[in-house]
Amino acid sequence: MKTYGRAIQRLGIVALLGTVLAGACTRTPRGTSMHEMIDQQIPTGLAYHTVLAKLDSMGIEHSPYDVSERRISAIIRNTAQHGVVRTSQQIKFFFDEVGHLERREHTDVHTGP
Length: 113
Known about the structure:
113 residues; alpha+beta; four-stranded antiparallel sheet
């Protein structure tokens, strides 16, 4: 009887570990589609105030326009998850001397335990 109980206990532990490992290997990527969406919705050449308005309309968290650095920083949180590690996308928008968008930098930011 003790052997049977231990076998059931071990089987339960193996099933629990399998569930945890399967959860740790899952992911929900949205990163690439977010890059493409930002690039399409906010093309180069836009004025900084238009970029701010677009980010607002898209519900994307962002900084105000930094006049001295000619930059806006934005973040899209939780664009992917790999187990317990979450990925957010940071986007930096760089502007020319008259305030028109020159380029964007997309960076993945990973957070977790």
